[in-house]
TrEMBL record:
PANTHER family: CORNICHON-RELATED. One of its GO terms (biological process) is coenzyme A biosynthetic process. GO terms for molecular function: phosphopantothenate--cysteine ligase activity. This is DNA/pantothenate metabolism flavoprotein C-terminal domain-containing protein.
């Protein structure tokens, strides 16, 4: 991006319907719709609870033929780890992730300090083998991954741009609505709050020779409202709130609950998000943290988040409330 970038909020907020009318769906939407429909039908017939996990950040193009873009900070760690924990607890998972972000199971090797080839070695016959010191952990991970895929418990769906994300979110949540209260929506993706509408976007690469760049960004429509009230009205909906000012975390989470009417907001601070979260519902507030012993053992906070959500989800399925 050029220096001296000026970001200015737009002239108003368009509604979700208008957004979908003025933007084109991703070219692979029909393909993923078919896969999602088959996946949901399969597990609906078996009474398996299904969770849609959104993970990673969205990219906002600055040009129709995109060279430059604005991106959201997220490697997709929370979503990928959570997917593993849900699978271990018998949930079927639709993992809707940013392309090339962390994925369940493979995350242990694709984004580690070692390059993937560092886990391999050549034996005396010149054949590839897993290095003996990594073999036990890789075997354990591979067994879990194969179990999930062989039992049709994991469906991987990717997105890149904000538009990709929003079209797929709308479509998949409406497909999952047939599951009623057995569906959970775990909205962990870092979604951009601002974008450039297609009609205001440059067609070709913005030229740096023109000097400083001033951008006017419109606010992204509030898609959580139709998701809660229309697309997925019977499911358990969990959103996330990331803040850097601790004084804003709980008040803004409560504002979201009041405004959109969903069930749970999980709040976290940027600096402590990997060890402390706050569960906020209409009637409760609970801080959940890893202690030093757990941190020393590389316990992941998602191992506490997911069981808590499953307890809530069981109550939601049985009674339509969060009373556990």
């Amino acid at each position: 991006m050029p220096d001296n970038l000026l970001l200015d909020n737009g002239q108003g907020v368009i509604d979700p319907d208008t957004y979908f009318e003025t933007n084109s769906p991703p070219s692979n939407l029909n393909e993923y719709d078919e896969k999602t429909s088959e996946f949901v039908k399969y597990h609906g017939a078996r009474g398996t609870p299904v969770v849609l996990i959104t993970s990673g950040g969205t990219m906002v193009p600055l040009e129709n033929q995109t060279v430059r873009f604005i991106d959201n900070f997220s490697a997709g760690t929370r979503g990928a780890v959570s997917a593993e924990k849900f699978l271990e607890n018998g949930y079927a998972v639709i993992f809707m992730h940013r392309q090339f972000s962390l994925q369940p199971y493979s995350r242990h090797y694709t984004h580690s300090a070692n390059g993937f080839l560092d886990y391999m070695t050549l034996n005396e016959e010149g054949k590839i083998e897993v290095d003996a010191k990594y073999a036990p952990s890789m075997t354990e991970t591979l067994v879990k991954y194969n179990k999930a895929r062989n039992n049709n418990m994991l469906l991987l769906v990717d997105f890149v741009t904000l538009s990709d994300y929003l079209f797929k979110l709308k479509s998949f949540t409406r497909i999952m609505a047939t599951l009623g209260r057995s569906a959970m929506y775990y909205l962990a993706a870092a979604v951009s709050d601002f974008f450039i509408p297609v009609e205001k976007m440059a067609e070709h690469k913005i030229q740096s020779r023109d000097g400083a760049l001033t951008l006017t960004l419109d606010q992204v429509p509030k898609f959580l409202k139709p998701l809660v009230s229309v697309w997925a009205s019977n499911g358990l909906i969990v959103s996330f709130k990331l803040e850097t000012d601790g004084n804003l975390l709980v008040p803004k989470a409560r504002q979201a609950l009041e405004k959109y009417g969903h069930q749970i907001v999980i709040g976290n601070m940027l600096s402590t998000r990997k060890k402390t979260v706050t569960f906020i519902t209409q009637d409760s507030e609970r801080v959940m943290s890893l202690d030093q012993e757990e941190l020393d053992k590389d316990v992941e906070i998602e191992s506490k988040i997911v069981p808590e959500l499953i307890r809530y989800h069981r109550a939601w399925i049985n009674h339509g409330t969060l009373d556990v």
